[in-house]
Write a structure and sequence with these properties.
It is a single chain. By secondary structure, this protein is mainly beta. The protein has a single domain (8-112), classed as Jelly Rolls (Sandwich), CATH 2.60.120.10. It is 3% helix and 50% strand. The protein has one helix at 109-112, and strands spanning 8-10, 17-22, 33-39, 53-67, 70-75, 79-82, 88-104. Strands 1, 2, 3, 4, 5, 6 and 7 form a seven-stranded antiparallel beta sheet that branches. This is Cupin. It comes from Ornithinimicrobium faecis.
């Protein structure tokens, strides 16, 4: 039977809002997570080497994705895939960003391996 999902808000510093629709915090799923993010201009987070693959789809604004020595700008309507074991750092563009993140397996704070 289909199940209507209610987002669970996950508190984070820096003014970013995370609303998890499916995953460890909201539905108890460990094999994947889906979350909507809203990050203000100037937001960034520490580098991480996650144990999960992550697909990031930008709805509005843009996200800068720093991997190795490269920086990719992901604009509204675009998506990017980062792989487990890859060092990555996310940063909101000058107008902030609204985006979806899908992680396989599910996101966990421990699994992010933040620096």
């Amino acid at each position: 039977m289909a199940e209507h999902l209610e987002p669970v808000r996950i508190p984070v510093p820096g003014g970013k809002i995370i609303e998890e629709l499916a995953g460890r915090a909201s539905t108890g799923h460990n094999n994947y997570s889906v979350a909507r993010m809203s990050a203000p201009a100037g937001w960034d987070e520490p580098a991480q080497v996650p144990v999960f693959d992550e697909v990031t789809y930008v709805i509005a604004g843009e996200i800068l994705v720093h991997t190795g020595g490269d920086t990719e700008t992901v604009a509204a309507g675009q998506a990017i895939l980062t792989r487990a074991g890859e060092r990555v750092r996310y940063e909101a563009g000058p107008e902030g960003a609204d985006y979806l993140a899908v992680c396989v397996p599910a996101f966990s704070e421990e699994g992010a391996n933040r620096a």
